[in-house]
Every structure is written in structure tokens, then in C-alpha cells.
Amino acid sequence: MPENPTPRPAAGGRSGGGCCLLLAALPLLWCTAALLLPERILWYPIWAVAVVWHAAGG
User: Fold this and answer.
1) Residue 18 and residue 24: Cα distance in Å, rounded?
2) Per the UniProt record, which residue ranges are transmembrane (predicted)?
3) Fewer CB atoms < 10 Å away: N or C end of the chain?
4) Nearest residue to 34 (alpha-carbon basis) of 47, 49, 44
5) Where are the alpha helices (DSSP H) in the chain?
6) Contact 30/22 with Cβ under 8 angstroms?
7) Cα–Cα distance between 44 and 36 in angstroms, integer?
8) What pLDDT does residue 1 have?
9) Where are the domains of the chain?
10) Has residue 11 got a pLDDT over 70?
């Protein structure tokens, strides 16, 4: 009788949560940096939107 051809999933390994941790850490780092450099950090969200907008336009 043939064995089941379906491969077993790999045991253990990383779940891929590193990307979510990075996204969660960015606001925390931004708030921490705002305490040290309030004038420069204030413009970061505006700069980030401009970069994304420019990249989308080509």
C-alpha cells in the first residue's frame, strides 16, 4: 500500500513575525526620538508620505 504523498510541514522554524515587530517598533522609536529632536521628528510623517507619494507616481 502506498504511503501518503502529502509532505509533512517542517517542525519548528520562525513564524515570520519579525515584520510585524518592526512595524510595531517604529512608532515607539519615533516617540522616543521626538523627545530628543522635536523639530526634526515633527516633519517625519510628512516626509514619509511625500516619499511614498513620489514613488507611486513614478
Assistant:
1) 10
2) 15-37
3) N
4) 44
5) 18-36, 38-42, 44-57
6) no
7) 14
8) 53
9) 18-57
10) no
Do residues 22 and 36 make contact, with C-beta atoms less than 8 angstroms apart? no
Look-up of cell digits 507611486: 56
User: Which grid cell is 52?
Assistant: 511614498
| Per-residue model confidence (pLDDT) at position 24 | 82
pLDDT tens by residue, 19-54:
778 778 888 888 888 888 877 777 777 888 888 888
Grid coordinates given for 7 = 509532505
What are the b/e assignments for 7-30, b being 16+ CB within 10 Å?
A: eeeeeeeeeeeeeeeeeeeeeeee
